Amino acid sequence: MTRVFRTERLLARSDRWIAGGGLLVVAGKVERVLTSSRAVARAAAAEGVHPVDTGDTLVAPGLVDAHAHLDLSALGGEIAPGGAMVEWISDVVARRAGERAGPRLKHARRAAAELVASGTTLVGDIDSTGVCARIPWREAPRRVAFREALDAGDPARRDQVVARLGTRLAGGAFLREGISPHAPHTVSSELLASLGRLAARRRIPVQVHWSETEEEVRWLSAGEGPFARLLRESPLTSGLDLLERARLLGKTTSLVHGNFPGRGEPARIAQARATVVHCPGSHAFFDRAPFPLERYVRAGVSLALGTDSLASNDRLDMRREMALLRSSHPSVGPGE
Hints:
By secondary structure, the chain is α/β, with parallel strands linked by helices. It contains 12 helices and 15 strands. Strand 4 and strand 5 form a beta hairpin.
């Protein structure tokens, strides 16, 4: 099916606005950007169709949510903002213990629809329960399902994780599989190594929560702080060192949060061509210190934005994430 759309305002690129243009769409795919009203009329005549007027709207490329947890959507509004990370984790674990698969899928589908309605066409989703693969593709953005893996240093859990990830994820035409070692402080060195080999063998992308809190950094480097009550023996090194040793730091790796990079770490990330994902809404939820954006920019690190989950954000809307970033970092230009 071929359609021609007439638009009042069209953002073709970050630096190119088109007034009175439109789009030629064939079988659901944008084939051509029409740069004037004459081009719209010619395309409609050539295809034998009447132009569809989009009205008082802004037409723009689809947004990308680089980090979400759709399977946590049932917790939206359930957890008070501003708490410590360890307490937040305990609260999430306790609330999820009684969750049933049916309601979890229903909330995830609703969250996916929220992303679509606000203009997101691609999402990197951390999938710990298989929910991502079960959302009908017509109801959701295209998805990279990062299958979550953690063992908290427990060898028995490690074997289960490796066995589960050995089976490929069944999904639709708009689903790509990735893996997510949860974080360097919740995944043993042995499991990180196994996941590094798996990612290399299957050539799949990797997403890791990294350097999110000072408590995480403190436990990894010195074995001290609140995480010492929850985790086994500390590796006594940095999370970035652990990821590098496991060959999990590369151009298909995205590091989520990165609020407390150590000395020289932004340069190492840039050299590896990895991406850092900042989640402004979640950052505000935890009332964290300013994100070190300028350090990453100076080092040449690729940056992306994400929503995180409804367990730590008011809503899943990338337009809001961009607005929050502009508010906290006004030096970042709108085009950028």
